[in-house]
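Hey,
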Amino acid sequence: MDTNAEQNPLEIEVSDYGPIINAKIDMRPLTVFIGPSNTGKSYLAILIYALQRVFL
């Protein structure tokens, strides 16, 4: 387990991205998105994946 991730949680803020108006996500080693259809869960997952590929 990566203790650095526990000490420095990653927080992501998103505005006006697809169906997401405003969102603030505290990323942990396991983050699960749940909610109704067409609320931006997949958009957010794709964004996080893309950011991880670019910055990590």
